[in-house]
């Protein structure tokens, strides 16, 4: 009795080999109109009578005495293909059947940003639209909006359809002045490969942003400068779109404000710089800004002026006193004093 148990126990736990079906490749990804090639392989199967493929496209009848069976479609003409590999047995085992995963895809016919505005106002929000036409399968599609700093938005789609669809994505954009001249694209990415390969991509033509904004000075808005005998230049350069136009004027305590003619320039270099205030107005269709250049006399110039003025005052006082002593009551000049008798 003990010997009998000792004989049975080692065999009681032995696994029974499992029969299975393997595909190469495990999943098929095929572009619409291209061929399909796959293989069905039996794994650890005994008493196999034969193998076959059931499919509306490329069906293969039961083939005897094989452990693998190829499957082929010359040209895919449908969007949903169901293909089964089966194994039949000679010992009345139930037939084994597995479905080959097949994904049929089609790249978009076109990707475009539709009806983009010709001009964008700074600070105004616009809704941009990207149209992706005739793509399949839509549930594998992602649309990316790309700008100068990378990804702006990603949108996926849940349409459960094998046939091609038209889909659209939108982007709300509020442009700033530093966005002027930059590009925005939308990109369709079809992620159909199961083995980690990069998705298939198609981009729209770039949308170049033309952002309109009022002028803004590149340097400090107002400047106070000492008058110099050498050449002086006043820089009024402003950034704006449309390009700003410039108007210059001058005013001082002794000089009324007047326009400086023919000076639609960002920089002014007067032939003679006077003390006072030069003003520059930069303007376009969206607004205007004014910058002031306040010109003062240098310290040395004031000292010389005071000295000259004092000299004239002293000279005037001397002449006045001399007049008192040397001018007669009848207005004639005499070297004698008024008190001396004639």
From TrEMBL:
Keyword Repeat: no
A biological process term (GO) from this entry: cell adhesion
InterPro entries: CD80_C2-set, ICAM_VCAM, Ig-like_dom, Ig-like_dom_sf, Ig-like_fold
Record GO terms (molecular function): integrin binding
UniProt keyword terms in alphabetical order: Disulfide bond, Membrane, Signal, Transmembrane, Transmembrane helix
Transmembrane segments: 304-328
Keyword presence, Nucleotide-binding: no
Residue ranges occupied by any Ig-like domain in the UniProt entry: 108-188, 214-296
Listed name of the protein: Ig-like domain-containing protein
Organism of this sequence: Nothobranchius pienaari
